[in-house]
Amino acid sequence: MRIQILCGAFAALITSFAHADAIGDLKQFLGSTHSLKAQFTQSVVGKGKTQTSTGNVAIVIPGKFRWEYQKPYQQLIVGDAKEVWLYDQDLKQATSKNVANALESSPAALLAGDTSWEKNYTLKALPDQDGLAWLEATPKRDDSSFEHIRLGLANGQIQRMDLFDKFGQTTQIRFSQIVTNPKLDTGLFHFTPPKDVDVVRE
After folding, report:
1. Which CATH code of 2.60.120.560, 1.10.760.10, 2.50.20.10, 1.20.1250.20 fits the domain covering 2-201?
2. Whole-model pTM?
3. Domain ranges of the chain
4. What is the pLDDT of residues 84-112, one digit of tens each?
5. Residues 6+ apart with CB under 8 A from 27
6. What are 150-153's contacts with CB under 8 Å, separation 24+?
7. Is 61 helix (H, G, I), strand (E, B) or coil?
8. 3-class DSSP assignment, residue 109
């Protein structure tokens, strides 16, 4: 009986360490990553419908990012650490926001922002699933548009982001072809609206 109890306690201890690794992996990722590029598949689930899109992302920490939707529609979100542009090619509209008001405009903004997630989020380790170490980040600010965010990591890299907003909508993102600390052209993070588009400043 004692052996069974000890084995059970040891297994629980090993499991708790495995879960805690997700938070450690996130800290290591943020501490060692200065730039990143990847492909993504994004699925937005809400009201019984799922919308899927694909594209590319490029990030330079802190504050610079380019989140480019390619299919099924072409849209672009660009941040240069001061200003964030949202450009819809089909609608011919470009919207500019101060970066302080647009930190949650895209997952890239979250990844490229303040690397001290513990300052802005309460972190909780979750059980491993689908071969990934998971953690949950709950915003400390009441005015956040997200209820919580789940991050899945493997091999020291973020592979999944699941964002749960306050309107019952879930955004699931899978990253692939991840390259950390590449040299990126600074022009990727600057946006000049084309002359034939409507410009909205917020």
Report:
1. 2.50.20.10
2. 0.82
3. 2-201
4. 999 998 899 999 988 766 655 567 777 88
5. none
6. 150/126, 151/22, 151/26, 153/22, 153/25, 153/26, 153/29
7. coil
8. helix
